[in-house]
Amino acid sequence: MSIWEKAKTLDRRIIFLFMFLGVGLPLLAKIGLPVSVTDDVRNVYNYIEKLEPGDIVLVSYDHDTGTLPEMIPMSDAILRHLFKKDIRVVGMALRAEGNGIGRQNIRRTSAEFDKTEGTDYVFLGFRPEITAAILGLGTSFEKVFPKDDRGIPVGELPLMNEVSNYNDVKLVISVTDDDTPVYWVNYANARFKVKVVAGLTAVMATTFFPFIDSGQMVGMVAGLKGAAEYEKLIKTPGRAARGMDAQSIAHLVMIGFIIIGNVAFIMRRRGK
Amino acid sequence: MNSGLICVSLFTADGAGIWIASILTLAIYSFLYKDNPIYRFSESLLIGISVGFLLVTTFDTTLLPKAFEPVGKGLSVMFGIGGFGSIISFIWLLIPVALGLLMFARFVPKYAWMSRVALALYIGFGAGASIPANMQSYILRQIDATIRPFLHIDSFWSLINAIVILAGLISTLFYFFFSKEQKGAFGKITRLGTFYLMIFFGATFGYTVMARISLLIGRLTFLLKDWLGLIS
């Protein structure tokens, strides 16, 4: 059997092993490959950079636990930027699992900046039925979320006394692994003119380029790469920056296997 | 957090959680070698916990504050203070709750038709809210974004960019026009459309690969950093 015939019957577990090494080794031995910043991420950074201390930003955790490795680095980076600039954050979730994720994420990040719950940030909890929730917030935050996730009436939270609807919010950031930003664009941006940013899994990125081109979204932070770019902009390298070394090497491993596979295919055809 | 060994201590609340998560991660990855009962147990556990979490969260954050508590409060006002106003308020409150309950009629074949009342309202609301919104964001604003660059040409490359986008829009739309056979001049335009589609599929696939590897990076970072303590 020729080497090309062997390549045809290569055990897929060997490919898994190479992929595992391609990801694992760069994590252990930090390489520090450069990360270039794209316009879509820079636009998000610039928009937040222009906000004034005390402005209010709504962050919606619209994703499940399955995509945490992509979503948490970007949520961390964006929240660190917001808290560093003393921008106040209203957190919420449109997915049930996002409720627990958002609560943990916002409290952990705010603790790094000594922020006080109720004054500097709040977490309102989860609401199902995306359309009704987003439209409802345009009328009254209190009607959609009468209490925060601890059960405290929003009327007793100093921050929420300054938020009645989207008019009081400078930006909506939807951190999501599906098409939820389309709902934010359709019902919050188109109808109430609030600016929208999406933090997305890389899978969803191509869906949202037209929304950025048409000015319906300020920008987007897509996948681990987007998170690494944001970490670079705020000069706080974290998990995403470290992960990009592994990402690049894993891509090289994959390209290598694609080339081997195609060469093997051509050589076998020539041999027939 | 370290117990003196490399691994995180098993005998703390955080440590026990990390150990359980690590073992379950390895159990799921064991599928890459071959299907096995440990993998299937872990998969079933994940599904069960996800569904249980969704039910509890929905009950706690939606059914309780939006249905049970207001109905209980309404009943106590109606029977406590009384008056015509409180009865009207209670009935007004009962309408959405009753519509929600009608959805459960689907479980009883004889009364399944009753759920259509609630579904009809739900679909009516959904269509009414989404059709104009989608028209705006998917069609009008996209046409605007395709034409507008031609009004702001400030360099040779901005002109090329505008032409590339317009050509992509027209040729791709032509590709999905199935009432005419794709040959001759029309066929050449649709062929251009397929090139644009291929570029889109390629970009999407590339992003998908990146996303999947990111998930692997996330789990390996967890194992190497939080569990084994090999990454500082």
Structure notes:
The complex is a heterodimer of chains A (272) and B (232). In chain A, α5 links the parallel β2 (88-93) and β3. Chain A has eleven helices and six strands. With 272 residues, chain A is α/β, with parallel strands linked by helices. The longest helix of chain A is centred in the C-terminal third of the chain and has 33 residues, at 239-271. Chain A has a six-stranded parallel beta sheet, with helices on both faces. Chain A folds into two domains: 3-30 and 247-271; 39-237, 3-Layer(aba) Sandwich (Rossmann fold), CATH 3.40.50.10160. Chain B is an all-alpha fold and 232 residues long. Chain B has a domain at 35-145. Chain B is 76% helix and 0% strand. Chain B has six helices and no strands. Chain B has helices spanning 13-29, 37-80, 84-102, 115-147, 156-175, 184-227. The chains are: A alpha/beta (272), B mainly alpha (232). Chains A and B meet through α2, α4, α5, α6 and α8 of A and α2, α4 and α6 of B.
In short:
The complex is a heterodimer of chains A (272) and B (232). Chain A contains 11 helices and 6 strands.
